Fold Gamma-glutamyl phosphate reductase.
Amino acid sequence: MNLSLTALARKTRDCAQTLAVLSTEAKNQAIEAIAQALEAAADEILAANAADCAAAAQDGIPKPLYHRLKLDRAKLQSAIAGVRDVGRLADPVGEVQIHRQLDDGLILKRVTCPLGVLGVIFEARPDAAIQISALAIKSGNGVILKGGKEAIRSCEAIVKAIHLGLSQTAISPDAVQLLTTREATLELLQLDQFVDLIIPRGSNSFVRFVQENTRIPVLGHADGICHLYVDRAADLSQAVAITVDSKTQYPAACNAIETLLIHEAIAPAFLTLVAPALQQHNVELRGDARTCEILDNITPATESDWSTEYSDLILSIKVVDSLTDAIAHINEYGSGHTDAIVTENTDAAETFLSQVNAAGVFHNCSTRFADGFRYGFGAEVGISTQKLPPRGPVGLEGLVTYKYKLVGHGHIVATYSGDNAKSFAHKDLD
Amino acid sequence: MNLSLTALARKTRDCAQTLAVLSTEAKNQAIEAIAQALEAAADEILAANAADCAAAAQDGIPKPLYHRLKLDRAKLQSAIAGVRDVGRLADPVGEVQIHRQLDDGLILKRVTCPLGVLGVIFEARPDAAIQISALAIKSGNGVILKGGKEAIRSCEAIVKAIHLGLSQTAISPDAVQLLTTREATLELLQLDQFVDLIIPRGSNSFVRFVQENTRIPVLGHADGICHLYVDRAADLSQAVAITVDSKTQYPAACNAIETLLIHEAIAPAFLTLVAPALQQHNVELRGDARTCEILDNITPATESDWSTEYSDLILSIKVVDSLTDAIAHINEYGSGHTDAIVTENTDAAETFLSQVNAAGVFHNCSTRFADGFRYGFGAEVGISTQKLPPRGPVGLEGLVTYKYKLVGHGHIVATYSGDNAKSFAHKDLD
């Protein structure tokens, strides 16, 4: 363990303790100060990014990675606008979830409070550093950022501006830290004494690596294997539109579908409609035996197709005998992200929504709606496919926890025990 | 991995899927059927327990363990009454937490749902099997029980009765499983594909062992190192009563205090009052240097005292220079369970409640109030000292999660993207 990283993490934790008790107004002022400092440093940030991009191009990094790394003036302005959007979000800290009189003068409150310190590990995208810093400040948390090595100059310029902005405010610049060495990622994952939540942003394999190498809770998901089931009672033209949207609207997204399940009763009719619609969008179709009987010239699917997230214009298709079989397939091969049914039969829909074990269960709409912004959270911190809350798209509420505050006037438990025990009132207030 | 345990866990999971969609009425009927079956099998259960106790006595198990193992008719009746109490609790499943119109005809609901399968590992207490089975059914979860080997006959008799009770209901007896072999505990901890939450009930070292040997989320806490800080502005007689209650009302409880922190300005006056009051309850006092200067004949505390949970009539005492020092000591040595301040100064109280990092932060009352029943939850599934929710005493809500249900009428995301993107309404309903 690198002693200096431990010392840095401890400083961030101590600083976060002060940040935790700041007013909404003080936090919003700091967020505005960050926005202004980023605007003032725009030229410097863009120059640093240009240097990162030049180095990356020389190293021949893949084109999609290069696009994520590249920061032009419009993208930077949009990221700064995003900072001000975070300023306008409701403060997630200080929400009273339980307010209960246990007895005369003994009042219990459950109140939301910051987690403490966030560890955010992202790959090439430097604008992620901007967004997550604003979210951390708004939720009263310190944050330790670790960006990809391709983005190191950009991240340094961004964090320098954030520090300059914070130096004008009630918040210590130490609340936002940047790690730059390659070794730092593994060390960060070991700091469970100081870091309360890890947010990994990157490829599935990267997220899985993080999940398997830390005892700190991780907010994120490795896989997004989403399904669309077209029931025997589906409106077929609606089902075609939903299939095309769920697959092609943004195929690299985690909420795009990978597998289409079709009830055997409508399989010939539906496949005849949906296949050309998908092929028009250049989707490669891989079908099970029954699908291949109906459609000519498509690739047969193999067992591994059912558990593959293509993140690309490829779709596996399976004909099932029943709703029950569709649900069983999804619960076996799905990743618990988002699965949808198209049907006019409300009983079938209700069964699907109840029995499919996923963060999102949708009826007659595209899986692509599974998103914090579309849900109206104002921001999306991540999408979780674990079963315990927070589950699904997570907004600012994923960056806070709660504590129980109990205020009495000398109350002791002996009063409520033994032979002459007094009863509790347990009366909810407000 | 024992194949039969995997098969059993899979069966429990499949069975839980059916249980998840049952009505509150059907679950309550099953709970009443369990209560009646346990009443009918009382003689058999007590005979099995007598055999367990005889064997345990012959093996010379420690007295406290023997007392937890021993089930007399009154204790069994009280456990059965507890089952009926669970029947009367509000159903934690189906609660609508978010109800939002995203656009015309596109309705989002966040609804609570069962976790799936609980793994409950407990030591000698056979009545734990009764309580946790009722809680599992009420929350719509399957449960795999693993009792201590001393309680094997008792647990078998109890689960036999529960199965008999369930066989008369809509719930398959497979929803409640009992493991009896010693190897089963470790195997259970590996079943992250089928088990969604582990609840360990036992010693601190046992809970720590479970936490360190599973990837399944664990509900529980290893340590309960709770503090009471007596501020310079404390009402001293109130502080004495709270100290005595927090330490002696039930010293083995996790919410009893282990360390008393005292502001130096009132240390001589307060120690002179509180020491005899504690010693009257046979509490052994261990003081830091300044405490030892004020009190004669007490044991000096060593560094290890500050991080020891005595679970016994022992109390470490430290004189601090300030509120800040008290908070720093607690955040360094505490276990995040429950810490209290006694003061008439509301600013000091507010600072303490905000800055102490614990599940429970109390003002002018005993730490012993940190308990699900006293908080009015009706039941306590466990107490969590982790930072992420659920934190602190956890009632039935700790056994459920939520899913997002989105219902549309053919809605696709393409409508809300691109040049002519439609805006979302994001209107909360009800």
Remarks:
- Residues 226-369 of chain A form a domain with the Aldehyde Dehydrogenase; Chain A, domain 2 fold (CATH 3.40.309.10).
- Chain A is about 40% helix and 20% strand.
- The radius of gyration of chain A is 25 Å.
